Amino acid sequence: MVKYISRISSRRKGGRIGSRQNARRIPKGVIHVQASFHNTIVTVTDVQGRVVSWSSAGTSGFKGTRRGTPFAAQTAVINALRKVVNRGMLRAEVFIKGPGLGRDAALRAIHRSGLLLTFIRDVTPMPHNGCRPPKKRRV
Fold this sequence. Notes:
- This protein is an alpha/beta fold.
- The chain has a domain at 28-122: CATH 3.30.420.80.
- Helix content is 20%, strand content 25%.
- The protein contains two helices and five strands.
- α2 (102-112) links the parallel β4 (91-97) and β5.
- α1 (70-86) runs parallel beside α2 (102-112).
- One of its GO terms (molecular function) is rRNA binding.
- Keywords: Plastid, Ribonucleoprotein, Ribosomal protein, RNA-binding, rRNA-binding.
């Protein structure tokens, strides 16, 4: 005789499935722009530092040397901010790090997005005398 085994559903009855991320409103955020010579990475966080959205020139579809261009940085900023503006972000602080070409283009794109910028700070690390240089060459 075959015993019938009832299936137990893993889903709760009437429960909500999926993330509730869209329900959270973010009125103020922090935009971190890291602009290197080869890529530009844009990360948008809330005030506590939790990442809300991010984008880079590489994920925006640029490959190779085109990732370091100002246009690629502008596209990365637009992609990152599109998600947070829909969630109700109105004000933002901007931290820019790095020596890359996308610094100014990223800042211009943030300014054009309609967000009210409370302050802009350059957080590029500067060495206080740096690493020890290599020993002198003997020929």
